[in-house]
Structure formats: C-alpha cells, structure tokens
Amino acid sequence: MSVLLDTDKLKNYINGKWVEAAETTAVINPANGKEIVQVPLSNQHSVDEAVLAAKNAQKEWALVPAPQRAEILYRVGYLLKERKEHISKLLTMENGKVIEEARGEVQEGIDMAFYMAGEGRRMFGQTTPAELKNKFAMSQRVPVGVVGIITPWNFPIAIATWKSFPAIVAGNAVVWKPATETPIMAYELAKIFEEAGLPKGVINVVFGSGKTVGNAMVHHEDIRVISFTGSNDVGRNIAADCGRQLKKVSLEMGGKNAVIVMEDADLDLAVEGIVWSAYGTSGQRCTACSRVIVHEAVKEKLEKRLLRKMKDLTIGNGLDENVRVGPIINQAGINKIKDYIEIGKNEGAKLVEGGYELSGSGFKGGYFFAPTLFTDARADMRIAQEEIFGPVVSLIAVQSLEEAIEVNNGVSFGLSSSIFTQDVNRVFQAQRDLDTGIVYVNAGTTGAEIHLPFGGTKGTGNGHRDSGVQALDVFTEWKAVYVDYSGKLQRAQIDVD
What we know:
Layout: E1 12-14, E2 17-19, E3 24-28, E4 35-40, H1 44-61, H2 66-82, H3 84-95, H4 99-119, E5 126-129, E6 135-143, E7 146-150, H5 158-169, E8 173-177, H6 184-196, E9 203-205, H7 210-218, E10 225-229, H8 232-244, E11 248-252, E12 257-261, H9 267-279, E13 289-295, H10 299-311, H11 331-347, E14 350-353, E15 357-358, E16 368-369, E17 372-375, E18 392-398, H12 401-409, E19 413-414, E20 416-420, H13 424-433, E21 438-441, E22 457-458, H14 471-475, E23 476-484
Parallel strand pairs: 7-8, 7-10, 8-9, 10-11, 12-13, 12-20, 13-18, 17-18, 20-21
Antiparallel strand pairs: 1-2, 3-4, 5-6, 6-23, 14-17, 15-16, 19-22
Helix pairs in contact: 1-7, 2-4, 2-6, 3-4, 4-5, 9-10
C-alpha cells in the first residue's frame, strides 16, 4: 500500500456504504510495475444493488431545489481544491501522467464543480407566448432518473466530473463504473461526495470490467442514460444496445487530430504546440496531435526544429518534477504502438525519431515508449488514419490551405484540430471548414476549457457534448407545460381566431 493511500483494498460505494467484493485484481503503477492497491471485480449483483439504491435516492433528490443541490457541488469543489496536491500524486501513481498534468486534471474537476454548481441557479427553460387567450406556455428541464457513467483511464477524475456533476445538479442519481486501471480517483471522489453531504444513493461506484459491470449497466432497465467515453468499437456496441432499449446514450470515442502549419506560421510556436499536444500524456489523450499537416515550403524547417525539441524531452516517473513524458498505461498499450510502428514502416513512411520501447536504468518495471516521428507520410496511410494512442506523430506535406483542410477532414474522427498561421483570412476559413468539434488557432490540439462543449463529429461521438451548459442536455428531458386560465376548454390550432 502507498503511504498516500489509506487502504490496500478498495471497496464499492453503494447506498452510502463501502461494500466489499469477493474478487479483486491489482492496480499497477505504470512507471515501475509495482502494485498500488487491490480493486474489486464486481458482478451483476453489485450493479443491481447500486441501481436500486440510486433509483430510491433519486426520487427524493429530484425534489431538492436545484440551488440546494448546487451547494453540495460547491462543497465538493472546495474539498477538491483543498486536497489537490494529494489527489494529483495519487493520479500520477495510478495513471502515469506527469505531475503537472495531474494537477491540471484535478483543476478541471475543481472548475467543473464550481461551474456546474452555478447551473443550479440557472438551468433555464423558456417561456413563450401561447397562441390562445388567457393561456401560459413554458418549457423546463427535468431529471431523467438514474444515470450510468462509464469513464476511461486516461482522464480518471476530469471526465468523471464532466459527467457526474451535471447529472447530480440536474436531479439525477448516478451509478459510476471507473476504469479498473485507474480506480483510485473514483475512491477519492466518492469520499469527497460523502464528506460534502451528498445523500446516500445519489452517487454509487461499482468497480469492475466493462464486459461484466459495464454490460450490466447498459442493459439495466432502470438506468435511463449511459454516458460513455472510450473506444469507438465499444461505443458503437453501446449505442446499438441502448438504441434497442430506447435509452439515451452519450458517446465520446476519440480522435485522429491534426495540427496544420502554414508557410507563414511562427514555426517555434508551432513546434511548442505540436510537442505539447503530441507527447504530453505520452500521446494518450483523445485530443492528442498525431498528424502534422505542414505546407511543403516550411516542411524541412519544421521537421528539423521538431526533432531538436523532441531530444530535450525528459522521460520517466511522472512524480519527478523534471519529467515531461511519463509511461504508457500498460503492456497492451505498448504492443499496440509497436504494431503501428511496423505498419508505418511497411507503408513507406520514413521513421526519423523514436519507434522503440524504452528499457534499462530509470525505466525498470515500467511501460515507456520513445517519442516518435514519421515523416513523408501520406494522408491515406493507416498511421495517418487510425488512432494509435501513443507518442507517435506523422508529418504530411501539402501545397495549400485547401489541401490541408481536405487532409484534416479525411479521417473517420472529428474531435480536435489546430492551425498555425498569421493570416486572419485563413483563420476564419479554417475555423469554418475544419470538420471537428474543437478548433484551435495558434495553439495545439489540447487544452479544452470546461465552460465550452467538449466532443466531436463523425466517429468521435453521437452529437452530445461533455462540459459547458450543453452537458445538461444529456442528463435532462424537456417538459412543455401549458396553463390555461380562461375557465373554458380551448383547443390549440382549432379555436384560433
């Protein structure tokens, strides 16, 4: 057990109680391969218990005025802020990302708590003129009921707050399945919810595999919303299963994001943006830059500067303040990256840096991969089309802005894109024509802020958004209300003068 953690075995959190599971598995620190804690591998029964608790709690929670529900989130935000450093270190231990990134992720949770708490005093509906005399018409948001959230390992606390906080302030109860690779953030957040005074049953945490726990949640008749972040294959199956049940589903499933560098760009700034977007979190972000679409006039200059910057990257245990690139989450992740390196070479792309697993002093027991750069890639290569989820970037040369936009849009995902240029006309053309849910100008492909909607087009999702006020759309239904005070029966569309 780590000195940062107060237990050597996690438990499910159901109906305000910590509940043991019969079977557990080890959580491994990806920087050194050492066991941190045991996590439950729960079964259908645990899901049923959690859903029943949530269903019962939600009936009372929905009657609590939204501003009072928001007060709980304010307290959650203050507790997260108070424990930011402690939680950040735990996050780095279980996930591997460097400590400054972990602090940034916890800050996202803090920001989301305060932002969504503010929605407790807004959550606006509309009033509108009725078409008949002495009649009032309005719409309002109402909670859906029990919400199921399924979150990934790469942002184990931020994404959970994007989903749980709007669900809770809107009057729903939550059943949450965190990733088994990174369960400690769920444990810490559940403790904070408890301390903040959230009524028992409003948040329930069930640890376990997607095959068992996730599948049970998707098919449970009393869970009316599934909010999922993860792989495209799993998301498609969830969408199909929820569709057959007429169950609401929100999907965020990754990207194949590109930085466009035009010939008039500030190349030093572009290199900084590329390195941060591509190799931060070891490329294990859905918004990570994995393609650089560069104008042929500056391709050689950009490549040389990028290679110099890559050599300055320090790789190792993320708890070291001097480290800028941490480990890959596990050996399966390493193997997938290695497969794509061979695919890229076989396709004819030129490997100019990296492309290998790191071992030896400083990397013992961990899962580390060298920051990698391919050049002379074509837009139709698999390494330029498929999500690798590692520190691998492909350079693609183009001759114009129009071609750059075509290449950017020519993939099955549509999450994030970026353009570096000093031409305001190109800026506005790009932000109009880039087919992604997020567009950055003179910045990398990462850095979304919580008060704007997060999500994308095409294979990235199904139209819903995390973050921003738009997140409430996933966790509420619209109710239209008509009040007729005429004292007589009035028939809409018929009794209109």
